[in-house]
């Protein structure tokens, strides 16, 4: 297992939410400290007060990928490469899991208290989300490796 994938899982196992786990594992690539990561990912956490749409691991990976690819935008290049890589990330995750929707992945809506209770009772965060964090980190790692080789 690659080091950043392992780091994302360690963060998740330590109680970080899905998006924060992914962002924290890749923060050194864009010189973010932990406080910056928390601020950036805050709107993606499960307690945003509205229906969950995108899996937090997916959202965190896309934020990390977007941040890693910002150099192209700053260099005046168009966003085609970034859009292509984000689309590829989503397609690869959907191929593995059928969707990027948190609610569909878990089978419960964790933006609702009863959904959170069900998720805790059924241990969904450990039994399902662990795989989503792993797969999101592995796909992200692969895409970042591709990006770095292309530079």
Give short descriptive properties of this protein.
151 residues; 9 helices; mainly alpha; 70% helix
Structurally, how many domains make up the residues? 1
Number of helices: 9
- What share of residues is helical? 55-70%
Strand elements, count: 0
Instruction: Describe the main β-sheet briefly.
Output: none
Kindly describe this structure.
- The protein has about 150 residues and is mainly α.
- It has one domain.
- The protein is built from 9 helices and no strands.
- The chain is globular, with a radius of gyration of 15 Å.
In short:
This protein is an all-alpha fold and 151 residues long. The protein is built from nine helices and no strands. The chain is globular.
Q: How are the SSEs ordered, and which strands pair?
A:
Elements (H helix, E strand, L loop, with lengths): L2 H11 L4 H9 L7 H8 L14 H13 L1 H5 L5 H18 L4 H5 L6 H9 L2 H27 L1
